[in-house]
Amino acid sequence: MDDLLKKEIRILGLSAPCKASFESVVVGAVFRGNLWLDAIITCRLEGSRRRYLSNLATAVRNSKQYSQVRAAIFSRENILPLEIEDFRALGKMINFPVFALCKEPHRKLEKRHEIISLRGNKIHTPVWVFGEEHARAKEILSLACRNESQVPEAVRAADLIAKELPKSVLTGG
Q1: Could you tell me if residue 134 is left (phi over 0), alpha (psi between -120 and 50 degrees) or otherwise beta?
Q2: What is the per-residue pLDDT for 1?
Q3: pLDDT value at position 160?
Q4: What ranges do the domains of the chain cover?
Q5: Of the candidates 38, 98, 34, 103, the residue with the CA atom closest to the CA atom of residue 72
Q6: Cα(24)–Cα(20) distance, rounded to whole angstroms?
Q7: Inter-residue contact 117 to 126 (CB < 8 Å)
Q8: Helix and strand tally (H, E) in the chain?
Q9: Class of domain 10-167 as given by CATH
């Protein structure tokens, strides 16, 4: 891998409507660092946990930007009704690191040294990291966030879009 990350590193922010369920729409926003929106990805997920992961990984891999994306960041650790091990499996399926912004530190993950702290505005946001060294993960996150923000721009955009989805899209009607 490169020693130095470019300012325009492609980052995929993933979000979904607030209620985590196995019938959900996931919105992805691909950003070039924290500079501008490059693409939007959407995927309707239904069925079992295994199918859910497979469908999400397929949607990411089938996007035109897939070959350029260097990390996926979930807007929260409970965005999907998945276990931490499922995030690991997803990271292996899409073949790049997966991060999740957390509301509070997880003791289990802290003991395994899988949580880093994103600092900004005197507040520390825990971030779960799979598939990347901590120093490099911090560098990716610093390129993804604007100024002193603790939310990567790709995640912020994906959250905004997911919150505005009409109910008909969410219910399949």
Answers
A1: alpha
A2: 47
A3: 93
A4: 10-167
A5: 98
A6: 7
A7: yes
A8: 6, 7
A9: alpha beta
Cα–Cα distances (Å) from 8 to 5, 33, 69, in that order, read: 8, 5, 10
The pLDDT tens digits of the residues spanning 130-162 come to 889 988 998 999 899 988 788 899 999 999 999
97-110 per-residue burial string, b: 16 or more CB within 10 A, e: under 16: bbbbbbeeebeebe
CA distance 95 to 92: 5
DSSP structure class, residue 156 = H
- Taking the CA of residue 142 as centre, how many other CA atoms within 13 Å lie in the half-sphere pointing to its CB? 12
The amino acid at residue 163 is K
DSSP letters of 159-172?
HHHHHT--HHHHHT
Q: What angle do CA 138, 81, 108 make, to 5 degrees?
A: 50
Edge-to-edge strand ranges of the sheet holding 10-15: 36-45, 24-32, 10-15, 69-74, 98-101, 123-130, 115-120
